[in-house]
Every structure is written in C-alpha cells, then in structure tokens.
C-alpha cells in the first residue's frame, strides 16, 4: 500500500509548481509557433534535425524527444507532407533517416520558421540556424 503524500512537503509543492510552469510554457509555445503553422513538437523535430546535419533515425529522434516512435511517425509524416523534412534510405540500415528537405523551396524550413534557414547553394543540403524568430 502507498503512503499518503504530504501535500505540505516543500518537495511536493515544488514539483506541483514545476508542473504548472511547464504547462504554462508549453501552452505559450503553442501560441508562439502558430504563426508558422507548427506545433511545438514539430518545431522540436526541425530543431533536432538542423542540429544533426547527417539526419537522425526516427528511433534517435524519438529518444531525444522522449516520445514513442509511433507518435513521432505521425509528426514526421506531417512535416514530410509539407516539404519540411525528407526521409532517405541509408545503405547500411534499412530504416529511413529523417533529414531537412533540400532544396529550400517555398514552404520549406526557411519559409515555415525563420530561425531555420537554408545553407548557401553548394554548401550542403541541410538546414542551419538563421535569422531570429520575430
């Protein structure tokens, strides 16, 4: 049987405040990313991919996002449909790797979120940090 939690314990109160703060930040980020028609989770995927120019497997993405792979599949599907990411096969691994979609076309990483802009032509096909969000 579980012990009853002491709701007056400072650690318990601190945990509740931390959870409330996290919820407030998450809700504010949803509003913030609406201007680019992105969810916070979609932005997190794009952010991880631009930080990993070689791309990431969906397993690695799901681990870094602390998300079940089946949920990540839907996120990547939606981003791929919009042309923001692409899946590519790797010869040594049959599983697809997600990477930022080249070339930066209308609706791509740079157009959807100004913090992610394309590299100059010929310098690669991944996304990198760019202009600050407004």
Describe the structure.
- The structure is a single chain.
- Mean pLDDT is 74; it is low at 101-112 and 114-134.
- It contains 5 helices and 5 strands.
- The N and C termini lie far apart (52 Å).
- It is 46% helix and 16% strand.
- The strands form 2 sheets. A 3-stranded antiparallel β-sheet has the order 1-3-2. Strands 4-5 form a two-stranded antiparallel sheet.
- The protein has a single domain (36-129), classed as Orthogonal Bundle (Arc Repressor Mutant, subunit A), CATH 1.10.10.
- The protein is an alpha+beta fold and 134 residues long.
- A hairpin with an 8-residue loop joins strand 4 and strand 5 (127-129).
Give me the side-by-side strand order of the main sheet.
1-3-2
Instruction: Report the radius of gyration as a whole number of Å.
Output: 18 Å
How many strands? 5
Tally the structural domains.
Answer: 1
Gross morphology: elongated
Helical content (DSSP H or I, runs of 4+): 40-55%
- Identify the CATH class: Mainly Alpha
Q: Which segments are poorly predicted (pLDDT under 50) over 5 or more consecutive residues?
A: 101-112, 114-134
Distance between the termini: 52 Å
Mean pLDDT: 74
Which superfamily, in CATH terms, is the homologous superfamily? Winged helix-like DNA-binding domain superfamily/Winged helix DNA-binding domain
Order of helices and strands: HHEHHEEHEE
- Beta-strand residue percentage: 15-25%
Content-based structural category = alpha+beta
**Biggest sheet descriptor:** 3 strands, antiparallel
Number of helices: 5
CATH fold type: Arc Repressor Mutant, subunit A
What CATH architecture do you see?
Orthogonal Bundle
């Amino acid at each position: 049987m579980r012990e009853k939690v002491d709701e007056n314990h400072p650690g318990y109160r601190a945990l509740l405040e931390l959870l409330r703060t996290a919820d407030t930040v998450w809700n504010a980020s949803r509003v913030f990313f609406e201007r680019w028609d992105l969810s916070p989770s979609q932005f997190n995927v794009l952010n991880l991919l631009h930080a990993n120019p070689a791309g990431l497997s969906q397993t690695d993405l799901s681990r870094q996002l602390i998300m079940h792979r089946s949920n990540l599949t839907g996120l990547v599907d939606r981003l791929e449909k919009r042309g923001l990411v692409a899946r590519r096969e790797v010869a040594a691994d049959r599983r697809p790797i997600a990477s930022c979609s080249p070339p930066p076309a209308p609706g791509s990483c740079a157009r959807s979120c100004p913090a992610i802009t394309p590299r100059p032509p010929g310098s690669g096909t991944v996304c990198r940090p760019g202009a600050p969000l407004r």
